[in-house]
Write a structure and sequence with these properties.
The protein is mainly alpha-helical and 201 residues long. The chain has one domain. It is built from six helices and seven strands; from the N terminus they run αβββααααββββα. It has a three-stranded antiparallel sheet with strand order 4-6-7. Strands 1-5 form a two-stranded antiparallel sheet. α2 runs antiparallel to α5.
């Protein structure tokens, strides 16, 4: 997952699409990214995979396979439409388009048999994703509206965003685009995990 997300992160950071506050990081950087960002890409995917593995343990039969695929198909179409409607906004365009296309790849080409577990895991981790992302994107995120159309009012953040390159809509302080980004991140690590499980068995 880091092979995809770290270069993406480095490029976007170097071009001012997002960045990191010196006030909330210790100052150690690798390739322009704070050490905390590198650790984020190790700890968060591992925690999500652990949750995913628990879902498979507690629900041996894939939950709601048809419903999950239908919802993910609609999500993929929505992501792709949003991506192409925002081609000039680099974060919106790349996150939505990549996530939407990767979902379609799983549904129609790979015909993955684990999308029900993936969807359940994403729903379960989303509240915690929202809280942790809220702290990162607006230290006191709970002070903002649930649907926040004024991201310029966010005062304190660990990660800041150039609003010219995202939808300009926040859930509290988290960019709405982060949903597509988070889904892509979780689906990518889940895919690799499942491929490794097949080889191991």
């Amino acid at each position: 997952m880091m092979m995809v997300f770290i270069p993406w992160d480095i490029y976007f950071t170097s071009n001012g699409i997002w960045g990191f506050s010196d006030a909330y990081t210790i100052g150690w950087k690798i390739a322009g990214l704070p050490i905390e960002e590198w650790l984020f890409f190790m700890c968060i995917p591992y925690a999500c995979l652990f949750t995913y593995h628990c879902m498979k343990y507690f629900f041996p039969k894939e939950p709601w396979p048809f419903f999950s695929r239908a919802v993910l198909l609609l999500t993929a179409i929505g992501f792709i439409v949003v991506g192409f409607m925002n081609t000039a906004k680099w974060y919106s365009f790349t996150a939505h388009l990549l996530s939407g296309c990767f979902l379609l790849l799983h549904i129609f080409i790979l015909r993955s048999k684990y999308l029900g577990w993936f969807a359940l895991t994403f729903v379960l981790v989303f509240p915690f994703f929202l809280i942790s992302n809220g702290v990162l994107t607006g230290v006191d995120f709970w002070k903002y509206s649930l649907l926040n159309f004024h991201p310029e009012e966010i005062v304190r953040s660990v990660v800041w965003y150039n609003n010219e390159h995202n939808l300009g809509i926040r859930i509290f302080s988290m960019p709405l685009d982060d949903i597509a980004y988070g889904m892509l991140m979780l689906l990518l690590v889940t895919t690799v995990f499942e491929k490794m499980e097949v080889k191991r068995s």
